[in-house]
């Protein structure tokens, strides 16, 4: 066997092995002009740990502070990130849900205690959900961005809002426990590692739970890590995120939700 042939075969086998590796999607939530600097720092550190691409969950009008795409510097940065292979995802619209009268205990648990009044699409009706998602897509597209997915704040997405996302021609959504193809309506189980850092007991609980969860998901075909900007401000949390990222990247390829869904569609039997 000649040297050239041996080299060619080695390359083929290497590519084949690479394609068969499991996947890791790291998503950065709540990206907006107010959080851009922190998001840049997170992306830089992740790149040093082998994560070259991430899914950036961009809020169109974060907490009613103004249209994100009206900030030219922010838009230029998003365009640069997209050009580098990162993905831009629509993440709610305002990322806030006003409290309502006569809420049940369950509703209060999810929308106040769990997500601190940020479960915007938890019980939004179809028409309003479609209006907000469509407006977000139009704003992003006008800014030269190409969103393919919609992810609700805190992953709280009611059935009417999910249908609205599909009718707005978004291709996928995610929840805490999986990824859903809005075309085929197929759900892929994939629990995400995520942290709550609003208090000391939440941080301690998150650290213990995510360490255990990472072990349980070691053999899963898709691993997910969801990062919020405040995570970077807590050394013990950020240290664990990087440590678990290193562990998961030992036998995985970093990808985006957009590219992972596209790959699953290619693999689907005709």
Describe it.
Helix 5 runs parallel beside helix 6. The radius of gyration is 19 Å and the shape is globular. The two termini are 38 Å apart. Strands 1, 2, 3, 7, 8 and 9 form a six-stranded parallel β-sheet that branches. The chain has nine helices and nine strands. By secondary structure, it is of the alpha/beta class. The longest helix has 18 residues, at 3-20. The model is unreliable at 1-18 (pLDDT under 50). Helix 7 (200-216) links the parallel strand 7 and strand 8.
Give short descriptive properties of this protein.
270 residues, alpha/beta, 9 strands, 45% helix
Task: For the record, give the distance between the C-alpha atoms at the N and C termini, rounded to a whole number.
Answer: 38 Å
Structural class: alpha/beta
Summarize model confidence as the mean pLDDT: 89
Topology, number of strands: 9
Supply the number of helical segments.
9
Rg is 19 Å
Which blocks of ≥5 consecutive residues have pLDDT under 50? Answer: 1-18
| Overall body shape | globular
Main beta sheet: strand number and arrangement?
A: 6 strands, parallel
Helix content: 40-55%
**Topology order in helix (H) and strand (E) letters:** HEHEHEHHHEEEEHEHEH
Q: What fraction of the residues are assigned to beta strands by DSSP? A: 15-25%
């Amino acid at each position: 066997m000649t040297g050239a042939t041996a080299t060619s075969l080695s390359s083929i086998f290497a590519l084949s092995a690479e394609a068969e590796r499991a996947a890791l999607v790291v998503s950065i939530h709540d990206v907006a002009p107010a959080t851009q600097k922190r998001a840049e720092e997170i992306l830089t550190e992740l790149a040093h740990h082998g994560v070259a691409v991430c899914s950036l969950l961009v809020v169109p009008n974060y907490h009613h502070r103004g249209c994100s795409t009206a900030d030219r510097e922010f838009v230029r940065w998003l365009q640069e990130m997209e050009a580098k292979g990162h993905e831009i995802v629509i993440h709610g619209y305002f990322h806030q849900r006003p409290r309502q009268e006569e809420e049940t205990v369950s509703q209060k648990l999810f929308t106040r205690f769990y997500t601190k009044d940020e479960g915007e699409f938890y019980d939004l009706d179809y028409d309003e959900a479609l209006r907000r998602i469509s407006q977000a897509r139009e704003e992003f597209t006008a800014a030269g961005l190409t969103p393919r997915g919609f992810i609700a704040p805190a992953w709280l997405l009611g059935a009417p809002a999910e249908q609205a996302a599909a009718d707005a021609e978004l291709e996928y959504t995610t929840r805490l426990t999986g990824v859903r193809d809005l075309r085929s309506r197929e759900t892929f189980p994939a629990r995400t590692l995520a942290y709550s850092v609003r208090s000391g007991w939440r941080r301690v609980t998150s650290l213990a739970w995510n360490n255990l969860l990472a072990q349980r998901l070691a053999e899963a075909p898709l691993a997910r890590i969801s990062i919020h900007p405040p995570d970077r401000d807590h050394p013990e949390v950020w240290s664990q995120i990087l440590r678990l990222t290193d562990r998961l990247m030992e036998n995985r390829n970093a990808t985006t939700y957009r590219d992972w869904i596209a790959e699953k569609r290619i693999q689907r039997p005709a």
